[in-house]
């Protein structure tokens, strides 16, 4: 009874193998996600994202509008023209006049208005630079994540090809009666497991590339192949003092805080000028007719004073001063954050690179040698197929860990570039 049960299991296994092999002939070619010649590099991805991102384009429009407001603020206050007169109800006596009034904008009103508009334009422009820096770092991180998934997918494909070749060899040995069918079935299980893993890996790559397309501003159907690979060579960054000084002087987010602090100063000055005396000058012409023989022509002129508030706009000035103090605190905290960002980024890169080096030379390379030994022992009959498959699975996991270590080095390098405001981070 047990013999027939085993025979039925073997026959079912052979039938399943035949169905799997028959399906392979109709499976479409594997997609190609990397093109070393014509693919999209990380710099290309950043360049496309910066040019096509709708949010950044909106910020650019706001900055352009702010520049127009600077030109408008530089215009003198509008002159008003007034005309009128009096006509006697009965008789021909009348008086007509026309006069123009020009605000003098005393107390530096025009200068502070222009200064405030200019500072607001600087804030808008720096907001664009901050958004571009953040987007560039985001694109490079997503590029690295997509590349890591592609490398894992390629690793799974290579493993699958190796298992398929091994399966064909074992099938031939089973047909010749040199190997037990059980080894063929055990290898078939591992083969199908890797096939399923390959499908999931391919799906993860496609989803990551769709996310990358979204960040770049591309349509989901637009073709996208990556070109760059992970650079395993160590990067010699400048000393932390140099990187920190550059970050404090050029990082757009910190420059934006300083510009907002300057804007607060301009608002204080504008509030002070609004509390001062202002005046308008008037010049005009008047014609007075009493009778046909009695007519007079006059030049009309005068000055109208706009008296200041009793408290000379003190409440508005105090509010502006409080706003300035708040911006000072934000700027000081921003400088502290920048220093910490640079220090943490450098520590993270050093640790990531050391971990990668250990994983590569002390783990993966040694595991590859161990796998060769286990394979030779299996071929000599000292080990079972299960031992070899288990060791192979462990080595593949370690190689995936190596890809993760490469990704951490790449991402930490991008973080150093972002924290120190490296000019190479944003490509236009």
Care to describe what's here?
With 428 residues, the chain is of the alpha+beta class. It has one domain (35-420): Up-down Bundle (Outer membrane efflux proteins (OEP)). Helices cover 69% and strands 10% of the residues. The chain contains 9 helices and 4 strands. It has helices spanning 2-24, 42-52, 54-73, 109-176, 181-216, 240-250, 252-274, 314-380, 385-420; strands at residues 80-87, 94-103, 278-289, 295-306. A 4-stranded antiparallel beta sheet has the order 1-2-3-4, with no helix packed on it. Strand 1 (80-87) and strand 2 (94-103) form a beta hairpin. It is elongated.
Name of the CATH homologous superfamily = Outer membrane efflux proteins (OEP)
The biggest beta sheet, please? 4 strands, antiparallel
The CATH first-level class comes to Mainly Alpha
Broad shape: elongated
Features:
9 helices, Outer membrane efflux proteins (OEP), 428 residues, alpha+beta, disordered N terminus
Compile the SSE list and pairings.
Blueprint: H1 2-24, H2 42-52, H3 54-73, E1 80-87, E2 94-103, H4 109-176, H5 181-216, H6 240-250, H7 252-274, E3 278-289, E4 295-306, H8 314-380, H9 385-420
Antiparallel strand pairs: 1-2, 2-3, 3-4
Helix pairs in contact: 1-5, 2-4, 3-4, 4-5, 4-7, 4-9, 6-8, 7-8, 8-9
In brief, what are we looking at here?
This protein is of the alpha+beta class. Helices cover 69% and strands 10% of the residues. It is built from 9 helices and 4 strands; from the N terminus they run H-H-H-E-E-H-H-H-H-E-E-H-H.
